[in-house]
Input
Amino acid sequence: MRIAWLAIIYTILSLLPLALESIGVSRLVSILAFSYIMSIYALSFALLLGYLGLLNFGHALFFGLGAYLTAYQTIWWGIPYVLVIPISMIFGAAAGFLLSLIVRRAFGGIPFAFITLTVLLMVYFLYTRRELRAISGSEQGLLIPTPQLLTSTIISYIPLALTAILITASIYTILRSGKSGSKAGASRSSIAIIPLSLILMSALILLIDSIANRAEPLRISINLYILSLTTLIAVHMAIKKILESPLGLIWISIRENESRAASLGYNVFIYKAIAMSISGAIAAVSGSLYAVYAFNINPERTFSPLLSVYGLIYSLIGGLYPIEGSIIGAIVVTIIERFIADYAGGWSLVFVGVLFITIVLTMPHGIAYYIWNPSTIKNTLKVLKKAYRSTPYKNKEQTNPYG
Amino acid sequence: MALEILVSAIIDGVALGFIFLLLSLGLSVIFGLMRIVNFAHGSMFLWGAYIGYEVSSRTGNLLAGILASASITGLMGFLIEYLLLKRLREPLTQAIITIGLMLLLDRVAWLRWGDITYIWLPPELEGTILLGPTIIYKYRLFVIVVGIVLLIAVYIFFNRTRYGMIIRAGIDDREMIQAFGVNIERVFTGIFVVGSVLAGVAGSILVPWQGVYPTLGINYLLYAFAIVVIGGVGSIGGTMVASLLAGLAQQLSAYYAPYLAEPSIFLLMLAVLMLRPSGLLRV
Amino acid sequence: MLEIQDLHAYLGHLYVVQGVSLRVERGDVLFILGRNGAGKTTFLKTIMGFINPSRGRIFYEGIDITSKPLYERARMGIRYIPDNRRLFPTLTVEENLLVGLSDIHERKKILDRLEYIYTVFPDLKKLRKLRAKQLSGGQQQMLNIARAIAHPDAKLFLIDEPTEGLSPIYASKIASVIQDLVREDRGVVIVETKPWLMKKIGGMYAIMNNGKIVSQGSVKDLMSSRDLIERYLGVTMS
Output
């Protein structure tokens, strides 16, 4: 039943462009699409940091890999975009495993953070060299043709198909519970879902209709919005499943006490490498989406160390636990940055810096924490006052976050 | 012929190594003692360079510039530590705070000074000395002399004074040191200020040689991170050795293999970490 | 000199110390006994200030120190001697001792104290230029104790398993150092389960079980109660 409501929320979110357009802020559609793409990236970063304690300063490597692979596949080989994403994922996973092999002797803590950063910098230096202009695009970047997928209306059929499935599934449960006479509660919400889905369905048909009639740029941005939203939800659900599985539990036990996990017979390296591969695959997806979003990629925007740092910013501003925090962090930071960039011009980074500091000082657990526990908002000011009044250093058991 | 180039390269490398040392020593101790990955350290370097340029080019006195940047970056360090970092001793959160500061400080510097590269060399240190066939720049020699003096001062501070001893003990075990009556908060603030001053001084010394431009801070921050990791986080001796190695690596590759000049320090770090993950001198 | 009222403390999420009340006077030795995991170490760490108690009060020399930070308690003369030593491994032996004297500013006084330590532990004088990590286990434990008793104003010692894993020679040396402390009218709280050591030093005992004090009295009485020992300590007396 929870999954049905999640599907409803997803459908409503995919209708958002229509609403935004009707109130005249269609520009927000593309900003939101970008924030979803960065959310996928943030999820992959938070997975490593939050569940294995791996601070990956080379994370942009996977993102850049996804972006450049997308460019090569669409420009040189003309592979359809539907296939590009899974292919990029496979390469991302392979890169994650390869990076694990490189860092196998220092798989954790500060050495890990800096070896990965170094590998990233190596690739970055390589890609900014003039000699490699043909494959890197240098400063002008590589231009990526918009895939057909984004100019048609196919993508918007995904939520439509989902509503259709929802309706059939609900009718099926009602019929079955009618026979057995049990699970009255479940059937009641099933009954509620049917009309809701029907309304959403008609709205979606309206959306598809409007997409078909739009000018191409707007059509692309709506399609991109739905595509990145769909991917985000799918990735999020996959990560949730993995974290609840035995694999996720092993990860947590490794983070808590690596030597104990090793003495229990777990091959710590393999489990970390699996996490790196999964994270790499997900980050490659976000890079792949970014490539078609930006339709012009250069090393400065993809292999940049600052992008890795942004992974940390997203995760901590949103909050590491639960993992949804990083999604919220990415959306909030991306949207605010865009607005600041519009209004503050050259001063924008100054305000962004002030903003980061203010957020982490006032909300040390991340924004998401206050959404899950609204009652704590009132305490925020108190916490701040206390921080500035007393000596803050608390003696607690010494823990070293860098291992 | 080849020997002269080698000598020049080594002199340049040692000079650069001393600048690296000033920059990364503070970063390493802040790292080791406070567990902060201080992204704002490069900004201190940048601001030290700009202030040094402004003051010394106006007064015509290099020393005035160095002193001015030392005092202003020291004040900046104190304010950052006292108003922001002290409030939340949580390493990752502090990393975010310093990232915010880096974005902010670098951008403010850019708004004030723009994309131009500024350079000012005191007239008495202009020009070169001829040592047989080898050409040696006076200013780089001056950097080496200043570097040696500071190196001795740093050595005495850490090995012969009470504060140096407490800092080393704190790097070993920062909780146990308090059980002997040391107020670690004071030590934290002190070390952050000293680290910022060293970075500022390093910046102001670099200006007459390489000039100052907006991305100087972030470039040198990455070098300093690499050096700290090469030497072993929190290892003072390791940082000294690593700084000189990094300076030599970069200048030698600049002379012999220019395309390696930028990545040389990172390649060095990669090699060291593959062989000794905990750094050169850390056991 | 030390009074603890209804102390409760957590270690992470674990409720470890569950309401302990105790008194220690000058010249007293108090043995804290109990099985592994009874909360002995956490209790000592809470008195020292490594862990903040969730409830209860700690008085030292009549002053409420419950909310005082670790370093202030140390300056008031409380010393903690951890069982896992926690020396400063990259510092030399002499520097380890000097850390304990770092709030003394007269050079002569510092030298006097060093001289005193070297008379108590002659071995350390020979080793003083070595780094702490180069010492053997027994030597490290000597240094661990020497570092804590170095300061002239240290009055209360919280000692955690001082003879664990040491050879008999080192262990009896440590016992005599503790006896000296008691003779000088200082307070000692010690986590130790070796019966011979308790017999030698004497004093009071308190048995901790599941975070609570289950039995208190003088060591002499304990030694005659075979039942208590077998029930809580799991050692068979011979």
